[in-house]
Fold these 2 entries.
Entry 1:
Amino acid sequence: MALANPFDAPGAHDLTAHVDFATLGGMAELSGAKVYGPVGQGDFLGLLGIADRAASLARAHPDRGPELAEAHHRLTHPSEMGALFRAMALTGMGWPDPAAFG
């Protein structure tokens, strides 16, 4: 597996990693960061508005409605990726709450 720069073609690389969230969060707090999460991917994407975005895309591309509905289900449903993948945010003290964690 080759290393990928996440800033080179954002969204085009798989940045999946096995993360020990408890250790990461604990170390971040010891360093003065504020920790949010972890939360399941389904909840995270839901709070970011994935359902509205999927509906908007389906209206704009009715021929792709079933494909978009399946992708939404796969990304958010607990029996799919919605509970398998998790998200965490770290911020400096005094920074605003990150989207979907506030």
Entry 2:
Amino acid sequence: MVSSFAILLLTTHPSELMSDLTRRGLPAQFAYVIISTLQILPQMQAKAQTIIAAQRSRGLDTESTFIKRVSSVVPLVGPLVFGSLVEVEERAIAIEARGFTSQKQKTSLHEISDRTIDKILRWIFTLFVIFSITLNIWLS
């Protein structure tokens, strides 16, 4: 399950996923929640690396014993949390400015084609999941 989630994150661009989900009928609010959750971890990692680099340039010891590293990480939590809260507020303002809650038909900058091979693979994987669940129930 983890590997399939990792493959999804590494092979699918979030904007394409959101466009395709909304094209298939998922409300834009739900698609946004899914996409923002997928993007939170990389954004937090990038922000943490930036904060750590800034603290290192100020002389923070991040390469000594484990206890010293843990105590030096505590001051990094504040800027990370407050920065994340500011980002959430900025996203909310951007969503309203872009008319995210508008009831009019949305358009996309680029259309995602649904090829025949994609449909076949979707059916094969759906049948495989159903077969796996049935086999698991039958064997237990």
